[in-house]
Design goal:
By secondary structure, the protein is α/β, with parallel strands linked by helices. About 35% of the residues lie in helices and about 25% in strands. The chain has an eight-stranded mixed sheet with strand order 1-2-4-3-5-6-7-10, sandwiched between helices. The chain has a two-stranded antiparallel ribbon with strand order 8-9. The longest helix has 18 residues, at about 85-100. It is globular and about 50 Å long.
Length: about 230
Amino acid sequence: PDPAARGRLEPLVVSSAAFGEVVYDVYLPTGYAASDQRYPVVYYHGPTPPELSAVPRSLDNLIADGELRPAIAVFSEASLPPTPAYADFWADELVLIVDARYRTIAEAEGRVGVGGDLGTLHAIFLAFERPEMTSGLGLHSIAFLDSDWEALAPLLRTSVERPLRIYLDWGRYSMHNPQEGWDLRTDSVRYWKELERLGFTVTGGEAPDSDGWASWRNRADVMLRALLPSR
């Protein structure tokens, strides 16, 4: 878009008892400084480099074209473990800091979580373990071990019990490792079917590429349109 329609990035350093200092990039949409409105927030779990992921550019384009309401995005290049400590850090520290510093819609309808590969564990766990925190779940190329399935199974709820907007995609040429027992394409298809069994309407599907932000960036805009209400 025109340079005047571009949002800006600013750093946010969060000091956590569990993880020490974690550096985030916060995307603020064009017009943020001059307005008094409140904005939904997209939280990207797992490493999301702004340049490689092209998320800021996708947001700029969608907002400028009127396809997306202006939104804030929060992402980091750090790789934090998908553990209960991460869930506590995100829900009880990071979100509170973001809500205090920025003009956010500080309720579930104003937050969505996105994860790719191992970051899908963060996003799914938080969506079901902390249902009061988010209203949308975006997943690129799920990576589950058997132990992950076992840990997540007790948390899952039906679409009636836990309403969520859900987007899930994967690559036709996704990575797999038969020796270690994981296959991103197979795991993604399996989870899609499980979500449908629970009554969710899932958008997305298979794309003619692979995994990682070099591929996910090609459909980041599709995910954002699915998760966030239009202007």
